[in-house]
Each structure stands twice: as C-alpha cells, then as structure tokens.
C-alpha cells in the first residue's frame, strides 16, 4: 500500500470521528400521564350494613288444654287461618259425661236449699217460744248456709266441666299462616305436652332483628351531638335478600334494645317491614342497610386513590406544586359506595391521583388529566353505602 493511500484513509477516519462527536443527545422522555380527581366537600348519606334475621310479627304454638284422642283435623297445612277458626276436634264423650254429672250435682244441691231453708225458718219461729233449743236452731241455720255453699260449688264444677268440653274443639288463637300438623287423627294428646300440635305465624308484617356494636352507636350519637351528622334521613332500613336482590319495600326502625349483650358487645335493633307477598319468611338471614343520617361537608375520595404503605397506614398520592407527586398519610372513617370518607390528610382542592399509580414515586413530575375509569360524584348525588366495619377503618390512621 502506498503512503498516500494510508494518509487518505487516516484523514477519512479522523473526519468520521469528528463528525460523531458533534451529534446531539437523545430527547428526554415525557412526564408520565396520571388521572386525577379534584376533591371537594359534599354531603354523604351514612349507611350501616348489618346482619339480621326475619321474625314473625305474631307467633302462636297450638297446644291441647285437655287430654284426649284427636278425632278430626279441620285445616289445610300451609294455608291461612283466621282467629277463632276450628283446627282440631278431640273426642268429647268423657267430657260430655262429666258435664252431665256436674249438672246433676247442681240440681241436687239446689233441691237441698229449699228443705234446709224452710227448716231453718221454722226453727227460728220456734226458738222464740222456746219450742226448740237454741242449738237446734243454730244447726238448722248452718245446714241451710251449707246447702247454699254447695250450690255455688256445684255451679263452679259444672262451669269447669263445660270449659273442658269446649276445649275439645281447638281453635286458632291468631290469624296467620299455619304450618304442618305434627299430630294426626287418632293420636293421643295431653294437656301441658311439650310438642305443639302446629304453629301459626302472622307474616303480613314482619320484624327484622339486627345487631349493631355499641361502639358504632356511640360514634353516631357523638357525631350527631357535634353537628357533623344530621338525622334527616334516619330510621330508614333497606333489606338485601339471601340471593343478593334488594327487597322493594323499605322498613322503619322501631326501637333499640335498652341493654348491651355482654357476650358480643352488640345492641339489638328491631325494624318492621310490610310483607304483602309473603316473600320474607321467619328465620331468613338478611342484611339490613340502616340509614343513620347525613354527614355534611364530607370529603369523599375514590377507593382507587387510597392505598397502604408497608406499615399498613392509609396513604394517598396527590399532584402538588409544579405537577410533582406528593404522598399524604390520611385517616378514613368509613366507606360510602366506592369512596372513603377522609377525615384527615386531604383537603378540598387537592388533586388526588386515581390512575397511573404504578411505579410512581414522590417528587416525580407528572402530566395530570381526567381519569378514564374513575369518575367523581356529581353535586347532590347520593352514594350507596357499604359496611362501616371495613378493614381500612380499623387501621387507617
């Protein structure tokens, strides 16, 4: 290779090196986009979801009041009966005989009154002229009084026999739906037996008994006393049925128990619900959504924007000054629909990050925008409630 050629190649290499050193650096990556919601104060309906059981408005266990053999059953099992309707007939032959015997004893006692009364009257006249002794008159008068007492006693025995005969016809004590019969015609029943013949339940209106912790009741009363919660919508209850559907008729809270159950620390609340279609059956397990009141000026944060740090504390990320990410430690009270009521750590006007939180760090410059999946509640919109006893409530401080 000639010397001129080598010099030419070196010159070309130097030119290429000089041209590479003059290239500009690659452009910086744009800030990550995040979805934010601007927080504001709004009214929140406080609803507590509690477990409950359906209880019949009235329940009557039908039992025999005399002993005997059932002769007939006069109702359709599972049907509706009215108060006073005849349900069973017990063989009344022994009781008819006892009534006839009591009637005869009463007639005999009535007959004895006349003879003893007349004798006492005669002795009264004779004792005045000393025709009979005073002792004989006293004995005759006592016999007359005893005869009158015997009449009263026999009349009572006849009435008792009549009552026992009436008890052979067992009638419905209340109106309602009757269950299956546990005894058939021909069965021997006895007064005071443990097993009921059947049961009648009135279910056109039913009770719902729910349990609420004493701590929750105290928190609610204190919030009402401080003015943070109003009772405008209080005492309304909605039912969630076992299949997940909502019962179409609202109930009303009737009363709360006056004592706290020492074993569970809960207080029993009782509500009434109309049940015209018989959909609510006694013993059914339901969940009751109790409207406790309204909380004015509450800050509602979407649950997607509240997370937990490694220590279990509730935290939120907001877009601060110069669009830099800030981490806030927050305190939440309860869930209201898909949002948390935030009592500390956030304020109106904060831009809460609800989307794009993956790998996001404090101090990162972001590009805030409207979220694609999470929407803010419209002014005046009521939120449905979830259970106040949520896991976040216990540790979010």
UniProtKB/TrEMBL annotation:
Chain ranges of the Multidrug resistance protein MdtA-like barrel-sandwich hybrid domain: 58-201
SUPFAM superfamilies in alphabetical order: HlyD-like secretion proteins
Residue ranges of every copy of the Multidrug resistance protein MdtA-like beta-barrel domain listed in the record: 205-293
Cell compartment(s), UniProt: Cell envelope
Family annotation (Gene3D superfamilies): 2.40.30.170, 2.40.420.20, 2.40.50.100, Helix hairpin bin (1.10.287.470)
KW Nuclease (keyword) present: no
Region feature (Disordered): 374-397
Top-rank taxon: Bacteria
Keywords associated with the record: Signal
Keyword Ribosomal protein belongs to the record: no
Residue ranges of domain Multidrug resistance protein MdtA-like C-terminal permuted SH3 in the record: 297-357
Pfam families: Beta-barrel_RND, BSH_RND, HH_MFP_RND, RND-MFP_C
Location of the Multidrug resistance protein MdtA-like alpha-helical hairpin domain: 99-168
Signal sequence coordinates: 1-19
Family per record: Belongs to the membrane fusion protein (MFP) (TC 8.A.1) family.
Protein name: MexE family multidrug efflux RND transporter periplasmic adaptor subunit
Naturally occurring in which organism (per UniProt): Sphingomonas bisphenolicum
């Amino acid at each position: 290779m000639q010397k001129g050629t080598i010099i030419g190649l070196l010159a070309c290499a130097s030119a290429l090196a000089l041209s590479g050193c003059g290239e500009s650096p690659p452009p910086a990556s744009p800030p990550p986009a995040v979805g934010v919601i601007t927080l504001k104060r709004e009214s929140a309906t406080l609803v507590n979801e509690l477990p409950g059981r359906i209880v019949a408005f009235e329940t009557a266990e039908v039992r025999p009041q005399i002993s005997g053999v059932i002769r007939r059953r006069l109702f359709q099992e599972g049907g509706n009966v009215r108060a006073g309707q005849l349900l069973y007939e017990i063989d009344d032959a022994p009781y008819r005989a006892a009534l006839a015997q009591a009637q005869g004893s009463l007639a005999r006692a009535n007959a004895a009154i006349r003879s003893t009364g007349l004798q006492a009257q005669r002795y009264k006249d004779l004792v005045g002229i000393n025709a009979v002794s005073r002792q004989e008159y006293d004995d005759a008068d006592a016999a007359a009084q005893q005869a009158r007492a015997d009449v009263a006693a026999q009349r009572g025995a006849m009435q008792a026999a009549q009552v026992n005969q009436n008890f052979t016809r067992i009638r419905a004590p209340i109106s309602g739906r009757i269950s299956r019969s546990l005894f058939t015609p021909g069965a021997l029943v006895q007064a005071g037996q443990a097993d009921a013949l059947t049961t009648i339940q009135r279910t056109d209106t039913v009770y719902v008994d729910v349990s609420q912790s004493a701590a929750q009741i105290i928190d609610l009363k204190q919030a009402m006393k401080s003015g943070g919660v109003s009772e405008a919508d209080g005492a309304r209850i909605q039912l969630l049925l076992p299949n997940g559907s909502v019962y179409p008729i609202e109930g009303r809270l009737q009363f709360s128990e006056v004592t706290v159950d020492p074993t569970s620390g809960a207080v029993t609340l009782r509500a009434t619900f109309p049940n015209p279609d018989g959909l609510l059956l006694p013993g059914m397990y339901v969940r009751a959504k109790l409207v406790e009141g309204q909380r004015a000026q509450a800050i509602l944060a979407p649950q997607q924007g509240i997370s937990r740090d490694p220590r279990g504390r509730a935290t939120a990320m907001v877009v601060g000054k110069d669009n830099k990410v800030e981490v806030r430690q927050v305190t939440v009270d309860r869930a209201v629909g898909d949002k948390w009521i935030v009592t500390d750590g956030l304020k109106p006007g904060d831009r809460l990050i609800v989307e794009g939180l993956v790998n996001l760090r404090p101090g990162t410059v972001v590009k805030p925008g409207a979220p694609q999946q999470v929407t803010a509640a419209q002014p005046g919109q009521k939120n449905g409630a979830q259970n106040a006893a949520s896991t976040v409530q216990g540790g979010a401080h």
